[in-house]
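pls design
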């Protein structure tokens, strides 16, 4: 089976975004990670390589101190090696489009834990950056719902423990770590399904 044959021609891409608040129009996107999901010859889903960026807050962006305390991001730390939203999204979109072409997919579909949140920030940033977004504009695959169905949990850390996927609370709320773990969870759930 090819990936295009599983989800209506869509390419699943796991995305996590760390932000400076909850409002996608006014609050800064500070970190993003995207991992494309692949499928092997036996129909087993697996996470491919990650694209990960720390992001400079856009001009005039809100930075809520409680959000920064929660995710532990120091926006003034020079070792973040932050790039613009346009550069980060440009690279992620280019990678997604190349994979879509190779896999003959029509769109990318965002997979995430509370996916609507990440999709909102992704679209707001792509609009600010004047970039054409390859992700479906409203459809997502949310691992919150999948976790509730499979494991009776909606919190990512709790779902991981029930699913017997290694989880480290100290590494949580990093876009890179959360994306890798969400990709593992997605693949475990999809690989448990007998789909022909």
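designed seq:
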């Amino acid at each position: 089976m090819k990936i295009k044959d599983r989800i209506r021609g869509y390419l699943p891409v796991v995305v996590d975004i760390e932000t400076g608040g909850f409002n996608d129009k006014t609050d800064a996107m500070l970190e993003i990670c995207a991992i494309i999901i692949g499928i092997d010859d036996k129909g087993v889903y697996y996470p491919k390589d990650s694209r990960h960026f720390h992001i400079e807050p856009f001009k005039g962006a809100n930075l809520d101190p409680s959000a920064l305390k929660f995710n532990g991001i120091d926006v003034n730390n020079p070792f973040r090696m932050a790039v613009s939203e346009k550069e980060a999204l440009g690279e992620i979109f280019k990678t997604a489009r190349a994979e879509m072409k190779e896999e003959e997919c029509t769109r990318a579909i965002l997979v995430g834990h509370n996916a609507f949140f990440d999709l909102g920030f992704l679209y707001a940033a792509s609009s600010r950056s004047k970039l054409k977004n390859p992700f479906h504009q409203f459809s997502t695959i949310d691992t919150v719902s999948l976790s509730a169905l499979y494991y009776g949990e909606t919190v990512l850390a709790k779902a991981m423990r029930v699913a017997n996927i290694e989880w480290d609370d100290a590494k949580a709320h990093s876009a890179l770590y959360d994306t890798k773990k969400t990709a593992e969870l997605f693949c475990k759930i999809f690989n448990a399904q007998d789909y022909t």
